[in-house]
Amino acid sequence: MDVSDDGIPGPVAEPAATPDDTRFDYDLVVIGSGPGGQKAAIAAAKLGRRVAVVERKHMMGGVSVNTGTIPSKTLREAVLYLTGMAQREMYGASYRVKSDITIEDLFARTQHVIGREVEVVRAQLLRNHVDLHSGAAAFVDPHTVEVTDDDGRRTRFSGRFVVIATGSRPHRPDTVQFDERTVVDSDGVLALDRVPGSMVVVGAGIIGIEYASMFAALGTRVTIVDKRPTMLEMCDPEVVESLKFHLRDLSVSFRLGEEVAGVDTGPHGTVTRLASGKKIAADTVMYSAGRQGQTADLNLAAAGLSADRRGRIEVDGDYRTAVPHVFAVGDVIGFPALAATSMDQGRLAAYRAFDEPARELAAVQPIGIYTIPEISYCGRTEDELTRDSVPYEVGVARYRELARGQIVGDSYGMLKLLVHVDTRELLGVHIFGTSATDLVHIGQAIMACGGTIDYLVDTVLNYPTLSEAYKVAALDATNKIRAVARFGEV
């Protein structure tokens, strides 16, 4: 079995066509070319199947490449570089690479990366002999889709299997008047004509907090509003508190447990009215009120399908919809709605459609949150372990105690390991700080193999590195477990 540079294993042998194959134009039709759709198409093509991908013009790579993951993470890197945030520990709070950062400075890098990624996605699909159809797709019947291009021309073709990977768009409450200038959603942020001096971010979920931290680093006075009492409630509370402390140090204000009653706009900006009676003046308001599955134009009823009020399609453990030959992956099926998980869902859907053996390691999928600083975790949380009465110990390493932490100027980062007291099995990894989204994969690999912290205690890690935090945290947990055991000795 070979492995190509697009990350999908190649076929062992060309499969023989089945009688069903000849009744359809394609073995697999994929609607959407984002992370899930792209990997589904390539996986099926590697199995020797006839594959078509439908994507709207100028949206190759889907939302992830054009308005979501790639532009937002590229923007983050531009902010980190131009503001000199990572170097301020060394050179002082006033250190900046560029004193007057413009919106053009930020988005020049973003547009360059988007252009390159679009070409990479297109090249990978064409290299694997996937047919690309430009336009908007809609079901005609459970096996047939109709594609309408920008000129109104319509094309119909059928697929033995179909994968819906249309992604999502920002949810826009009916009560909010978006003007694309002062009141925007998370897509509209990428079209701002200047860096705002002040901003209200409505929504303390992943996208809202990511953008809040970026603009705070640029010097924007940010206020975060959410009717929920906590932000990033899926994360470890200690990690969330560390991020909140860091954001407050960047002059971010929090209005949690507060609901927005309305937003007034005028020549001098906006005023956000809260249900409690408070009013917040700001240049810009960004709504991050969740995502809406892009299914409204698919004519799902013709395929025997339906979506919920947020446009999401229900699937089973194999990513099959209520119609067995139709699969759905990515944002359109809901949580976790991350590019990384969507890629794996696309691969698995294609394999299961064609009865190819596949293994899913869902229990150890990492979550990466690209705030400034980063957060990443894998496995279980302390609350979950406590609820299930699992005996565990905590091992902690702080970046300020690592030589590499001093070198890179990160005095606030931390890594936390959750360890089973009896089996010494690694149950969870929670990281806050520089390179958190990369470091988490070490713990993920150990957990996927059923490993224990003894591996981390016994192994030699490069010095000086941030990876060393694993050994420090493992030793911390081991010492705590040993102290309890010694207490019980006669």
CATH superfamily of the largest domain: FAD/NAD(P)-binding domain
Quote the average pLDDT.
91
Largest sheet: 7 strands, mixed
Low-confidence stretches: 11-20
Helical/strand content category: alpha/beta
Indicate the proportion of strand residues.
Answer: 15-25%
CATH topology of the largest domain: FAD/NAD(P)-binding domain
In one word, what is the shape?
globular
Number of helices: 13
CATH-defined architecture of the largest domain: 3-Layer(bba) Sandwich
Task: Determine the N-to-C terminus distance.
Answer: 58 Å
Instruction: Assign a percent range to the helix content.
Output: 25-40%
CATH class of the largest domain: Alpha Beta
Number of strands: 22
Radius of gyration: 24 Å
Subcellular location: Cytoplasm
InterPro entries: Class-I_Pyr_Nuc-Dis_Oxidored, FAD/NAD-bd_sf, FAD/NAD-binding_dom, FAD/NAD-linked_Rdtase_dimer_sf, Pyr_nuc-diS_OxRdtase, Pyr_nucl-diS_OxRdtase_dimer
EC number: 1.6.1.1
Family: Belongs to the class-I pyridine nucleotide-disulfide oxidoreductase family.
Topology overview:
Elements lengths: L25 E6 L3 H12 L4 E5 L6 H5 L2 H15 L4 H4 L11 H25 L3 E4 L1 E6 L2 E5 L5 E11 L3 E3 L12 E3 L12 E5 L3 H12 L3 E6 L10 H13 L3 E4 L3 E7 L2 E6 L4 E4 L1 E4 L3 E3 L32 E3 L10 H15 L13 E3 L5 E5 L2 H6 L4 E7 L4 H6 L5 E7 L5 E7 L3 H13 L4 H6 L9 H20 L3
Helix pairs in contact: 1-8, 3-5, 3-6
How do you describe this structure in short?
The chain has helices at residues 35-46, 62-66, 69-83, 88-91, 103-127, 206-217, 237-249, 339-353, 382-387, 403-408, 436-448, 453-458, 468-487; strands spanning 26-31, 51-55, 131-134, 136-141, 144-148, 154-164, 168-170, 183-185, 198-202, 221-226, 253-256, 260-266, 269-274, 279-282, 284-287, 291-293, 326-328, 367-369, 375-379, 392-398, 414-420, 426-432. It is α/β, with parallel strands linked by helices. Strand 18 (367-369) and strand 19 form a beta hairpin.
